[in-house]
Every structure is written in structure tokens, then in C-alpha cells.
Amino acid sequence: MLLKSKQFMKRNRALGSMRILAIETSHDDTSVVLYDSGKVLKDYSISQTSFHKKFGGTVPEYASRLHAENLPRILADVLNDYDLKTIHHIAYTSHPGLVGSLQMGYVFASALSIALQKPLREVNHLHAHVFAAEFTRQIVYPALALVVSGGHTVIYFLKSPHDINLIAKTSDDAAGEVFDKVGRALKIGYPGGPAIDRAAQANKSALISFKIPADLDLNLSFSGLKTKVTSYISSHRAALNATEVNRVAASFQESITDYLISKMKVAIAHYKPRSIVLGGGVAANSVLRQKFSKIHPHAIICDPAYTTDNAAMIAITSEILQKA
Ligand code: KG4
Ligand code: ZN
Q1: What is the pLDDT of residues 105-149, one digit of tens each?
Q2: Using 50, 70 and 90 to split pLDDT, how confident is the model at 17?
Q3: Helix (H, G, I), strand (E, B) or coil at 220
Q4: DSSP characters for 159-181?
Q5: Centroid of ligand 1 to alpha carbon of 307 (angstroms)
Q6: Cβ(179) – ligand 1 distance below 6 Å
Q7: 108 lines ligand 1 (CB under 6 A)
């Protein structure tokens, strides 16, 4: 993977290069990248998804154990390819995430920092989902960012890279969590998000109305929608053939994306940002991407290569925060 943002590269030429070893272990991806000035030199990530699949979700205890196994393996490969004395610093995900998984990343990053005598920089996982968008296009401030992931759903107002204010968060489930739960109820595979996206694309039938009542505040809540959709699935279980599964998937997706967009519109009207950003695992959703691109002239949507958890977003965030 060798992606770079032209604007980011231009800015970097002016500010000097920065080579970073970045580590992301907040959930079930053991992700390490070697990165230099807006560009991923090499991605050493190992996904645990196929392991957790059989349990229908991530098992935290196994996730930390697998990080403990994967990290030394990855390090051996990195040392084979690069002289780590050439790096400027080590960046790692400090929070939020699964405690045991975060701990593995922290211990690994600190041990390397001591051994290599290189500075250690901590990066907030959710802020990294925002700055991952800079692989695509530079954020213009003030900005609004919608981060939709498996564990979190938040809207930030950013006055600058160092001045990030949380203006909305879900009071119950995260958007990705609801995608996963609906996917499980429809029995279409794990994780549910990409499976629902695919099923919805195959739908040709009229949509079922799962509307969430529109309100003008910034509070986010998904439990009502989740209950509506899962109750519908239980009461129509006998009639759920492939066509119906696609229809329910498309209807749910329409409703949750409309809801997220309506909240962004409320935030845009109030904060009047110069750019808006979409990041996090659910930012890979094809319908959400289309709708998001239409609500602001400077909408930056994270490249699908960097929407789900990855160490590249930790690296780019660390560099942006160093240089801003
Ligand atoms: O950001 P992420 O990789 O992990 C967390 O930090 O939680 O997000 C994972 C979430 C999962 O819930 C997954 O179902 C969802 O992102 N996801 C999607 C799509 N691809 C991944 N949701 C909707 N549509 C997609 N195409
Ligand atoms: Zn994430």
C-alpha cells in the first residue's frame, strides 16, 4: 500500500521529513506501519477478524493474546526490512479501546522506545480516525468531523489540530455496533457493516420505513432503530428469503445514514465549518459516503483503505500534531 496526499506531501516538503513507526492495537487488528511524511512505506498489519468471526464478535481476552503473539513476529519482519535507527519517533494508540489490547501496544511501543532511544508519542484513536482523512485531502479549519466506528459515534468541532471539541456522542450503541447487530440478526456474516452494504446494493424492492424521528439537537441514539429493525426481523423470520434480507438491509442502511446526515446538517448550520470530515469503520459505507459528499462543498471522506482501524492513521496523526 503506497498512498499519499499531494497536499500533505507539499506541506511536508516545507516542514522536513518525518519517519515514524506506528502501532495500533486498540481492538482486533495488530497493525504496525513504517511511514514517512504522508506516505506508508510498508504495512505490517495482521487482522484477527477471521479468528473472532466464530464467536460472532471480538473476544477481548483472545484479542490481547493475539496481539502479544503478532507483535514480536511483526517486529522481526520490520527489522529485516528497515534500520529503525532512522526513525524520528514511535507513535502508538493510547486510548480509547479494549484495555488489554491497548496495554499490549503500549508495552511493545515503550520497550522499543527504550531500546532504540526514540521518543514515544501517544495518539488518541478517535482523533486518528479524523486525521486519516488527510491521506485524501487536507483538513481546512474550523472543521467538523463525524467518526462512526464499531465502538464509538462522535462529532467533533476542530478549531485546529490541537483544539478538538467533542460536540456529540451516542448515548447508547455505536453506529457500527448496530450494523453488526442487524447483520447478526439477518445472519449475513461478520462484521455486519460490509455485509449489509453488499446486501443493500443487491436490493431491488421498495424500502421498509424504519425512520428515526428527526430532532434538531445533537444528541445521538441508535437503540430505538436497533430495536425497530431487530423486532421486524424476529417477527418476519419465516419470510426472510434472500430478497427480503436485501430489502431489510437496504431499509436499515437508508435510515441510519439519513439519521447521521441529519445530525451533521444540524452541526453544520450551527458551527459553520470550512470543511467536514468522515472517518471510522462505518465511513466505508457506500451510501453514507454518497450522502456525506453532498452536504458541504469541502467534504473530506476517508479513503476506504484507512477507514477501519490501521496504524497508518496513527502515524499521520502523530505527524500532523508534531508539525501543527
Ligand atoms: O473503526 P473500526 O475499524 O473499529 C472500531 O474502532 O470500532 O470500525 C469497525 C466497524 C464495524 O462495526 C463494521 O461493521 C463497520 O465498521 N463497517 C461498516 C462497513 N465497513 C466496516 N459499516 C457499514 N458499512 C460498511 N461498508
Ligand atoms: Zn476505530
Answers
A1: 999 999 999 999 999 999 999 999 999 999 999 999 999 999 999
A2: confident
A3: strand
A4: EETTEEEEEEEBSS--HHHHHHH
A5: 8
A6: yes
A7: no
Task: With H, G, I as helix, E, B as strand and everything else as coil, classify residue 4.
Answer: strand
Ligand nearest to the backbone CA of 193: 1
Ligand 1 proximity of 282 Cβ (cutoff 6 Å): yes
Using a 6 Å cutoff on CB, does residue 310 contact ligand 1? Answer: no
Provide the strand spans (E) within the chain.
19-24, 29-36, 39-43, 46-47, 89-95, 120-124, 143-148, 153-160, 163-169, 275-279, 299-301
Q: Is the pLDDT at 1 greater than 50, yes or no?
A: no
Q: Are 168 and 219 in contact (CB under 8 A)?
A: yes
What does the longest C-alpha to C-alpha distance in the chain come to?
A: 63
Give CA–CA dist 163/157, Å, rounded.
8
State in Å: Cα 165 to ligand 1 middle.
23
By CB neighbour count within 10 A (0-12 exposed, 13-18 middle, 19+ buried), where does 16 fall? exposed
Q: Which residue has the cell 490501521?
A: 310
Ligand 2 centre and the CA of 206: distance in Å? Answer: 33
Regarding the beta carbon of 149 and ligand 1, being less than 6 Å apart is answered yes
Q: Does the C-beta of 97 come closer than 6 Å to ligand 1?
A: no
Element (H, E) at 100: helix 99-116
Q: How many CA atoms lie within 13 A of 44 on its CB side?
A: 23
204 Cα–ligand 2 center, Å: 32
Question: Would the CB of 194 count as within 6 Å of ligand 1?
Answer: yes
Least distant ligand from the CA of 98: 1
Task: Provide the grid cell at 20.
Answer: 515514524
C-alpha cell at 30: 495488530
Burial of 149 (0-12, 13-18, 19+ CB in 10 A): buried
CB 142 within 8 A of CB 155: no
